[in-house]
């Protein structure tokens, strides 16, 4: 039976289980347990929280979360090759780790964990933004989670925390600012990972606000912001042409000049526009 002290170093784990990283699954592993404990600490006090971890891989961050005192961790891993390594961690932390071999895109977390719930993950780069947008745009608010502590490619992290007028400002910044507070809390060089990715990474900590900053329908806001920034150099009236001939009137009613460009508009204006398109 594995105990915390008998868990082997992660480099040994990936060798024993022949966990050669698969690019298609976005596998860049963190093998330094000091580093994974530091990332886990960015999630705040874990002792009274259930943690949902997406993509535990060989379990570096999972070990960090458990060592930092997480009440319980539910880890969702798509790659079955990682299961024996994760089972060994589960043995060392009886009753505190549950591992599901599943695709995070298909997984419904509702009813699986007890509040307060923190999500923590070194996300596979190919599904990271999709998961984040899902977590930020449920129909009802507050969401199932209280905070998200997520590793992204640094360029994506910059887009999440961007302010209006900056180059990185767009859909991710607006959706994050609408009902949450997002901060970049840590950056990591490529060498922190095995194998090293081409670019740096960063951890973003996002806390859910009790209520949205402005009233809007989540789906409408998400779609209109995506359309506006898909053609960010175009004037709003051109970028939103597919909304029909009365979009100019709706823009004006929302306090937006039809000749404005998306990158100059703030969250309040986009929410006002969503309300013109579909009031809630
Ligand atoms: C960047 S690695 C992080 C691994 C580990 N957490 C670490 O920090 O070393 C991403 C992990 O997500 C897993 N993964 C990729 N796509 C997934 C999906 N759709 N659902 C669940 N896990 C997925 C990969 O197999 C891999 O273990």
Chain-wise SSE layout:
Elements (H helix, E strand, L loop, with lengths): L9 H7 L12 E2 L2 H9 L8 E5 L5 H8 L4 E6 L5 H10 L4 E5 L15 E6 L5 H9 L10 E7 H7 L10 H9 E9 L4 E2 L6 E8 L9 H13 L5 H4 L7 H7 L13 H11 L3
Parallel strand pairs: 2-3, 2-5, 3-4, 5-6
Antiparallel strand pairs: 1-8, 6-9, 7-9
Helix pairs in contact: 2-3, 8-11, 10-11
The structure holds S-adenosylmethionine.
Query: What's the CATH class label of the largest domain?
Result: Alpha Beta
Shape: elongated
Architecture of the largest domain in CATH? 3-Layer(aba) Sandwich
Q: Which runs of at least 5 residues are low in confidence (pLDDT < 50)?
A: none
What is the chain-wise order of helices and strands?
Answer: HEHEHEHEEHEHHEEEHHHH
| DSSP summary, beta strand count | 9
Overall tally of domains: 2
Radius of gyration: 21 Å
CATH superfamily of the largest domain: Vaccinia Virus protein VP39
| Alpha plus pi helix count | 11
- CATH topology of the largest domain, what is it called? Rossmann fold
Please provide a written account of the structure.
With 280 residues, the chain is an alpha/beta fold. It has two domains: 10-208, Rossmann fold (3-Layer(aba) Sandwich); 218-276, Helicase, Ruva Protein, domain 3 (Orthogonal Bundle), CATH 1.10.8.100. The chain is 34% helix and 18% strand. The chain contains eleven helices and nine strands. It has a seven-stranded mixed beta sheet with strand order 4-3-2-5-6-9-7. Strands 1-8 form a two-stranded antiparallel ribbon. Helix 10 (247-253) packs across helix 11. The chain is elongated, with a radius of gyration of 21 Å. The model has no long low-confidence stretch (mean pLDDT 96). The structure holds S-adenosylmethionine. S-adenosylmethionine (SAM) binds next to strand 1, helix 3 and strand 3. S-adenosylmethionine binds at residues 25-30, 54-57, 60-61, 76-79, 82, 103-105, 122, 124, 127.
């Amino acid at each position: 039976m594995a105990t915390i002290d008998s868990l082997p170093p992660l480099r040994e784990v990936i060798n024993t289980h022949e966990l050669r990283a698969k690019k298609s699954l976005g596998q860049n592993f963190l093998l330094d347990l000091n580093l994974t404990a530091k990332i886990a600490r960015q999630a705040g006090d874990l002792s009274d929280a259930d943690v949902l971890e997406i993509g535990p891989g060989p379990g570096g961050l999972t070990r960090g979360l458990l060592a930092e005192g997480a009440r319980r961790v539910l880890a969702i891993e798509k790659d079955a090759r990682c299961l024996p390594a994760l089972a060994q961690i589960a043995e060392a932390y009886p009753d505190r780790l549950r591992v599901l071999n599943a695709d995070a895109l298909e997984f419904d977390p509702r009813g699986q964990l007890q509040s307060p719930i923190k999500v923590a993950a070194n996300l596979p780069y190919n599904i990271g933004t999709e998961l984040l947008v899902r977590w930020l745009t449920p129909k009802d608010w507050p969401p199932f989670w209280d905070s998200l502590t997520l590793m992204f490619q640094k360029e994506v992290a910059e887009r999440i925390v961007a302010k209006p007028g900056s180059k990185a400002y767009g859909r991710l910044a607006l959706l994050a600012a609408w009902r949450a507070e997002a901060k970049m809390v840590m950056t990591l060089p490529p060498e922190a990972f095995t194998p090293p990715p081409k670019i740096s990474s960063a951890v973003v900590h996002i806390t859910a606000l009790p209520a949205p900053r402005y009233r809007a329908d989540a789906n409408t806001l998400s779609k209109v912001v995506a359309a506006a920034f898909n053609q960010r150099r175009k004037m709003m009236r051109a970028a939103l042409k597919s909304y029909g001939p009365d979009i100019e009137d709706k823009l004006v009613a929302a306090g937006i000049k039809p000749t404005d460009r998306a990158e100059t508009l703030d969250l309040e204006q986009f929410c006002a526009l969503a309300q013109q398109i579909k009031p809630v």
